[in-house]
Design goal:
2 copies of one chain form a homodimer.
Chain A: E1 5-9, H1 10-21, E2 27-28, E3 30-31, H2 33-37, H3 41-51, E4 55-58, H4 61-71, E5 76-79, H5 88-93, E6 96-100, H6 103-112, E7 119-121, H7 133-145, E8 151-152, H8 164-176, E9 184-185, H9 189-194, E10 202-203, E11 222-234, E12 239-240, E13 246-247, E14 252-257, E15 274-277, E16 280-285, E17 293-296, E18 306-310, H10 316-323, H11 327-333, E19 339-343
Parallel strand pairs in A: 1-19, 2-10, 3-4, 4-5, 5-6, 6-7, 7-8, 8-9
Antiparallel strand pairs in A: 1-11, 11-14, 11-18, 12-13, 14-17, 15-16, 16-17
Helix pairs in contact in A: 1-3, 3-4, 10-11
Chain lengths: 345, 345
C-alpha cells in the first residue's frame, strides 16, 4: 500500500466541541462546511450530533443536502450562502435553513418557499456576506414579520483579540439587533475566546473543533503517516528532485515518500517543511512534487517504513507555517487519496 | 445553486493527446495519476482510451484499481510507485504493471506474483524514484531475465530546455539501457518537446494533456465559473474580508462569489489574482477565504451572475502565477464541491 494514512480522531473533535461549549452559557452549534474542514462530513456530522450538537452550519445548499443524509431529520442545518437561485428544491427537500444575505434573497425565499424557516445574516463591517445597515434598516420590520429563526453576523478579525475591529463589529451587531427577540449569533471559534459579550444566544465554532488555532488548547485531531517508497544514498554534489532544487553538500540518506501536492501537501512548503520519525524532525529537501516528497533521513539509524507530517509532533498550524498559510487551508486541502481511518472509543 | 461550475472539455484532452502523439514517431501513453490531474479519471480514462491510448500511468496501486474499473480489461496500467508492501492483491486483481524502483521491490514482486508483468524504473540523476546506476549494474541481468515490459526514467528539468541536466540524464539513460531490447521511456510532456532523442519507444505526457505548460500550444481544457452570492457598494475607508485586508480608497462595488481555498483556489493568490467577466479582468480584493472570494466589480455596468477564474481569458498557468505556483498544482487542487460538467462532441 503506497497511499498515506490520515487518522481522524472523532472523539477529539467531540472533546473540542464540548470544551468550546463549556466556555459559554449559550447554545453551541458546529460548523462543518467544506466537508467538515476536509475531514469528512458523513463521519464528523453524526459524531457531533451524538455529542449533543443540534445546530449545524454549511456553506452551500449542496453541502446541506449531503449533511441531511448523514444526520437524518432533527438537527437544524443552516446555510451561510443563503437562498441562491436554483436552491429552492434542495432547501425544501433537505429541510435546510438558509441564512438570508440580501433583500433579493429574502424575496426569492418567501416567494418560492413561503413559511419555510430562514435566518438573517447582517454585515457588521466585514463586507463579505450579509445585509448592510441601510438595507437592514429598510427591511427590518418586514423581515422580522416572517419570523426568522436566527440573526447572525461574522467577525473579520476575531483571531486577533487586540484588533479594534472586534469591538466595532460587536457594537454594530448590538445596535442592529437592539430590541429584536430572535436568537442571535456573532461568534465563531475566535469570537468564543474573545469574551462573553460576543456569545449572544449561539456560537458557531469551526476550526477549533478540528484542532486549529486560535483554539490553542484544542485536542489534536489529525495525524498523517506517509509510506516510504524508497531510500537512497546521495553523494555530495548530486541533486534531488525537480529543477535540481536540492544539491547535497554531504553524504545524504534520502527517503522518497508517497504523497505530494496532489494530496494537499501545499507545494509552497517546499524545503521549509520537516517530517518526523518517532518525534525526530527530518528536513524535506528539494521540491514537493505531485505524488512524492523527498526527505533527508541521514539522522536516522534504521530504515523507517513511514514518516509523519501531521500529528503530536507537528500540528496543523505548524505545517501551515511551513507553507506560509493558516491551519484552515491545511485541513481543507487534505486530499482524496488518503486511507482515512476514524478513531472513536 | 451556489457551487461553482467546472467545465472539463474531454475532446480538448484527447486533442492534446493526439497533438503530442503527433510530435513523435513512437507510442504515446497517458499519465492520469492524481485523479487525472484533478479532472476525474472515470471520465478522462475512457475518453483517452477511445482516442487510442493503450498505455496509462498512475502514481499508486489504489489509483490503478480505480482506473481498471473505468477502463475495463485491455489497456496497460502502469504504477510509478512500483510494488509496495501490501500491493500484491491490488496488482493482481487490477492487472497492474508496477514500475519496480529497487531491489527490494523486485524481490517482493517476483516472490508474491511470479510471472506477473512489471517494468523497471531507473534513476538517471533525479534521485527521487528508481534504481541507482550501481544497483542496476548489479541487478541488470537478473532483472532482464524476468522479462520486464518497460524500462523508464524521469527527467528533473525537462520544463527548461536549456538546462544541462537534460542531456546528462539522456546520456545516463542511454548508457544504462545500452543493448537492452526492452521498450524504453524517458519523456513526459517536457521531454516530448525537447527533441526526438528523448522519445525512445514510449512517451508519457501528463500535464500537457490537461492544457498546462510546458505544452504552450495545448488546447484549453478547463473553465471555472463561480456564482455571485451578493453585490454591495463599499464606501472609502471601509474594509473587506478577514483581517481587514482590503480598505477601499474609492467607492467600490464588491461581488462576493461562492468558492474559496476549500475549493482549491489557493489562499496564497490573495489580492494578486483577477477574475473575469466577458473577458474583462476584475481584481480580487481582500483575502481568499474558505468558501468565498470578494472581487472589485466597479468596472462593470451590470450585475453579473457569475465571474470566471479559469477559461479562455485566464489559463491554468496564469492562475498559478497569481499563487506563485505551477499549473499542475492548480489542476490537482480543484475541489470536490464543483458541479463538474464534461464536454464531448
Amino acid at each position: 500500500m503506497s497511499t498515506a494514512t490520515l487518522i481522524i480522531d472523532l472523539d477529539a473533535i467531540c472533546a473540542n466541541w464540548r470544551a468550546l461549549d463549556g466556555q459559554t452559557a449559550c447554545e453551541t452549534a458546529a460548523v462543518i462546511k467544506a466537508d467538515a474542514y476536509g475531514l469528512g462530513v458523513a463521519k464528523v456530522g453524526p459524531a457531533l450530533a451524538a455529542a449533543g450538537a443540534r445546530q449545524f452550519f454549511v456553506a452551500v445548499a449542496e453541502e446541506g443536502v449531503i449533511l441531511r443524509r448523514a444526520l437524518g431529520p432533527g438537527p437544524t442545518i443552516n446555510v451561510f450562502s443563503g437562498h441562491m437561485a436554483g436552491d429552492a428544491d434542495m432547501i425544501r427537500e433537505g429541510n435546510l435553513t438558509p441564512m438570508i444575505n440580501s433583500v433579493d434573497q429574502l424575496l426569492a425565499h418567501v416567494e418560492s418557499l413561503p413559511g419555510h424557516a430562514f435566518g438573517l445574516q447582517l454585515d457588521t463591517g466585514m463586507n463579505r456576506l450579509g445585509m448592510e445597515p441601510s438595507e437592514w434598516a429598510a427591511l427590518r420590520d418586514i423581515a422580522l414579520a416572517q419570523r426568522p429563526t436566527l440573526i447572525m453576523s461574522h467577525l473579520a478579525c476575531a483571531d486577533d483579540p487586540s484588533h479594534p475591529m472586534n469591538a466595532a463589529q460587536l457594537k454594530n451587531f448590538a445596535d442592529m439587533t437592539e430590541g429584536v427577540e430572535v436568537p442571535r449569533s456573532l461568534a465563531a471559534t475566535g469570537g468564543i475566546l474573545l469574551a462573553p459579550d460576543y456569545h449572544f444566544d449561539m456560537t458557531r465554532p469551526g476550526v477549533g473543533l478540528y484542532g486549529g488555532l486560535p483554539f490553542l488548547d484544542a485536542t489534536p485531531v489529525v495525524s498523517l503517516d506517509v509510506p516510504v517508497i524508497q531510500i537512497r544514498d546521495v553523494a555530495p554534489g548530486e541533486s534531488v528532485g525537480y529543477a535540481n532544487a536540492f544539491v547535497a553538500r554531504n553524504p545524504t540518506r534520502v527517503a522518497t515518500v508517497s504523497a505530494g501536492y496532489a494530496d494537499g501537501l501545499i507545494r509552497a512548503m517546499g524545503a521549509k517543511a520537516t517530517m518526523t520519525h518517532e518525534g525526530r524532525k527530518l528536513p524535506v529537501i528539494g521540491r514537493v512534487s505531485m505524488d512524492l516528497i523527498t526527505v533527508d533521513i541521514t539522522a536516522l539509524k534504521g530504515t523507517p517504513e513511514h514518516l509523519q507530517l501531521l500529528g503530536l509532533h507537528q500540528s496543523v498550524d505548524t505545517v501551515a507555517g511551513f507553507a506560509g498559510t493558516i491551519g484552515y487551508e491545511i485541513l481543507t486541502s487534505l486530499g482524496a487519496r488518503y486511507d482515512r481511518v476514524y478513531l472513536t472509543a
